[in-house]
Every structure is written in C-alpha cells, then in structure tokens.
Amino acid sequence: MNQPVVKVGIMSTEQLQFVLLGTFRVNGAKVEGDQTATVKDGKIYWNGELFDRLSFIPDDDNENSRFTLKDVTIGVNFHWERLEDQTFVGQLDLIVENNKITPINVLGVEDYLKSVISSEMSATASLELLKAHAVISRSWLLSQIEKNKEITNSGQKYSACTITDDEIVRWYDREDHVNFDVCADDHCQRYQGVTRQTTPNVDQAVEATRGEVLWGDGKICDARFSKCCGGVYEVFENCWEPIHYSYLVPRRDGAAENDYPDLTIEENARQWILGQPEAFCNTHDKKILSQVLNNYDQETTDFYRWKVEYDSNELSALIKERSGLDFGELIDIIPLSRGTSGRIYRLKIVGSKMTKIIGKELEIRRTLSKSHLYSSAFVVEKQQNGDSTRFILHGAGWGHGVGLCQIGAAVMGDLNYTYRSILLHYFIGAEIKKYY
After folding, report:
1. DSSP string, 79-128
2. Bridging pattern class, strands 82-89 and 404-405
3. Where is 36: in which H helix or E strand?
4. Residue 62 Rama label (left phi>0; alpha psi -120 to 50; beta)
5. Which end of the chain has a smaller Cβ tally under 10 Å, C or N?
6. d(CA 421, CA 191)
7. Spatial distance between the Cα atoms of 409 and 424, rounded to a whole number of angstroms
8. Is residue 30 reached through a cis peptide bond, with omega within 30 degrees of 0 on the bond before it?
9. Are 401 and 260 in contact (CB under 8 A)?
C-alpha cells in the first residue's frame, strides 16, 4: 500500500501573496515566481481571471519545486501568536471559504510527518522521542481521516456544542474543517512546511516507523498529545465528544504509574495542583525542554505549575469579551466537575446578572484568558481587600493532558526508554501495528 495523501488547510485570508519557487503547472500552463490572489465576486481572482478553484501542481521535471506563503499566522489565539512566511513542498490548491481564500497543501503523509515533528518540537530531540511522535502523529492524522469518512457516510449532522438555558458545552476538534483533512495550527497538529528545517534524525525517525500506527479498540488510535499533562493523564471524553477509548485512561506520568490520587475529588485536586508531585514532566532541565519546545514555546517557563491573577473587574470584562455573555459583576467561579488529571470540564460562573455553567476544558481555557490558559487544571483562590476582590488561579500542566505528554516523553527519551516503551506508557493496552 502506498502512503496516503493528506490535504492541509494552511490559513484563511482576503488577499494571498505567495511565491512559486520552481516551476508549477496550472491547467497545463507553466508558472513560477511572485503571485497574488484575491477574492472577487465569490471567486478567486488570479492572473486577471476568475476561478472557482486553482491547483498549482509541481512540474514533473522539477522535483525541488516549493512554494512560500506570506504572513501565515501561527499559534492562532494563543499567547505566542505571530506572523511568519512559510515554505512548503507538494501541490498548492486555492479555494474560497467564507469569502476568503484558503490555501491547501496536498502531499504524502510521510512528507507531512517530517514537518509536523519538526514543527511540534525541536528537530534535535532524541531519536526515540522522534520515533514515538512519528507514530502518534501518523495515527492521529489517519484516524481523523477515517473518522471524517464515517461522519460523512452516516449522513448525520455532527455537532460539537450543546447549549441549554443553564449550560454551554463546547469542544473544539478537527470536525470544524470540511474542505480539507486537517489545519496547520495547534487546533490540529502544528504543520509549518519546510520552514522548520528537518534533520537527519527526523528523517530517520519517520523512515524507521514508516506506516506504523497505534491500534486499539479495533481501529487506528485517536492518538492525542499535549505539552505537559501536569502529572496524571486526562481521559478523552472530558475534552471532546462523549466517547471512551480503552487506551486513553488515567495513569501517573512517572515510573510509579499507578500511584496517583483520585483527582476528580476537589480536595485531592487542590492538594495535587498546589504541590509539586514527582512526574516525568516535572522538569526544568533546559537541555531536555529544548528538545520539545521551539523558540516561541520556550517563552513559557512555568508550565508544570503556574499562576494567573485577575482583579474582579478585569476578569468580568474578560469573560464578557471572550464568551459574548454579560454576567455583570463577577461574584465567583466554581469548579463543578473535574477529570482524571484534575482538569475542570464543568465550571460555574456566578455574576450579578446571570449564572451559567461552561465546558469543556478548552472553552474554559479560552473564556478565562486573553489567549488561552495553559490548562483547565486549576484551583481558585479569592482574596478580599475591602470592596476589591482578586481571583488567583493556581494551575497545573499545559494543554489538554490526553495521550502523550511531550515533555514527559522527552524525559523518558533522555532516560533511554525505547519509542515503543514511551508509546505504551501513554497509550495503555494499545498495539503498534504496520498499517502500510
């Protein structure tokens, strides 16, 4: 079986500036160099003509053809958001979505993985960590493509939101995309083309694991990963749709895998989050962290345990801005339901004008921060000073905490664990299977 092809949506913009580095073909005609495409009358306006869709296909005579997209936003809505020019290999398709141009990169899965691994972490990471990430990224991608086919074939409308008078529950997943397989940002997997230059280790990791996937519950595993679990893994259903996977269950991120408290209990979660429990991902080793964290990620220094402070007026205004709801003066924020890692997936916001429950974890993170909180595993401290109230959030971990913990896995790689041992530490009872 040949490697599958993946379609990656890179960005969305009213005017796209790009450079064809080498020769490409459009409707059989050769084209190269600087290009500009805009939206006009709901179509793509390029080279003096209107198109419903454009495909720039690398010339067969030039295997080194690449293209550069100008001003790609990375870290959308996160604290490291910024613009950069990015270069890609493969085919470039242009479509119109919501009266904006979306460039789509079409390429083989294995070439895609070389970029993802270099984008998600430093290409200088240990070989075993890179192998583990190659298997995880490949598994997640292929499982999402299969999942999309299942949703399409079922004919049922997929919904990632439940709203009642008292509660708003949202989760954010790749089903937001209908015209391509995955996006290029943290919403799916970071993919930055060949902008993050791969190394011989990355190429070796992808080639050594070519076609390998994690297998569980009779199909390719929905192999999630995040930066730092905070000490214990979260389960899938507390972050996304209410589906339980047997391989995504709680475990301590350490050698004593089964030694952890029940963090769904509030007092246990409080003690755990306010403490510094031993775990693989509890590290400040800069050499190890540099393997996982790219330059902009290294701007974050406190992630295993962190703290954010707001006064009540500031937090009231922030919640209104981020949720679109006017709670009035903020009175309290109360954790109602915690997951296996201590992450909150149901949070009550009490205001002078209304009270409402929000979830799941990413909705909580985006509502309580100008970008996103590092995680929803936090405890709330209220400080009263006369008429003034401060809310202090003491938190744990970075990301959703489901599946592989990248920093924990980096520590395991440094301790000479094999990539198979790393994978089976995070995906309990799964198999590693050759898929193609």
Report:
1. TT-EEEEEEEESEEEEEEETTEEEEEEEEEHHHHHHHHHHHHS-TTS-HH
2. unpaired
3. strand 29-40
4. beta
5. N
6. 26
7. 11
8. no
9. no
Cβ-based burial of 355 (10 A; exposed 0-12, middle 13-18, buried ≥19):
middle
pTM for the model stands at 0.87
Q: Distances from the Cα of 427 to the Cαs of 94, 268, 362, 412, 432, in angstroms? A: 37, 24, 22, 14, 10
Neighbouring-strand partners of residue 57: 25
Give the H or E element holding residue 204.
helix 200-208
Question: Rounded to an integer, what distance in angstroms lies between the CA atom of residue 6 and that of residue 15?
Answer: 24
Find the mean pLDDT for residues 242-254.
Answer: 97
Please report, as a single letter, which amino acid is at residue 244: H
Phi, psi (degrees; rounded to nearest 5) at 194: -100, 15
Instruction: Give the C-alpha separation, 167 to 164, whole Å.
Output: 5
Phi, psi of 146 (to 5 degrees): -65, -40
Distance in angstroms between the alpha carbons of the first and the last residue of the chain: 5
Single-letter amino acid, residue 174:
R
pLDDT digits (tens, 9 = 90+) for 262-309: 999 999 999 999 999 999 999 999 889 988 876 555 555 689 999 999
Contact 351, 358 (CB under 8 A): no
Structure tokens at 60: 């067969």
